[in-house]
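User: Thanks for the earlier help. One more: Probable inosine/xanthosine triphosphatase. Can you show the sequence and predicted structure together?

Assistant: Of course, both are below.
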Amino acid sequence: MNTFVAVGSTNPVKIAAVHQAFQQVWPESIWQIEGVSVTSDVSAQPMSNEECITGARNRARKALQTLKADYGVGLEGGLFQVGDAWFNTGWIVVIDAVGREGIGATIAMATPESVMRFIQEGMELGDICDRLFHQENSKQGDGYFGLLTQNAVTRTTGYTQGVLSALARFLSPELF
């Protein structure tokens, strides 16, 4: 039986992460994963966990509704502050066709002051990475995580882990 998953993004890294996570937890299923361009209705560079979750939720709902899927998945990266330090993370929301919602996150990585200066000037993290690492469209490749860790953690592996954590809601429904 095919199960249809709509991803609220056309970014191949995010689509691959969703596919890897769903395939890992339900290997016996056949997954049809399709990305669709939807808006997050949050700022281009979210600056709090709340804003990221809202953006991911909006993307998941819109993807689910637009493609009439079994699951909608929204992934939204952004920054959050703890004391004087800033961190980069990604939030994931998975919504099924009956409205149950799972929320998860990627790892969080410290954001250097040199990067924060560019963000405070209005640049997005992906553009900053392209500039600092002499890349082109790094957000559709290894991204911030991969560039800073020399690919020990890539954007795909980070988002895959985040999707897996969001799927906990569906893997252990009796606890939710």
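User: Great, one quick takeaway?

Assistant: Residues 2-175 form a domain with the Maf protein fold (CATH 3.90.950.10).
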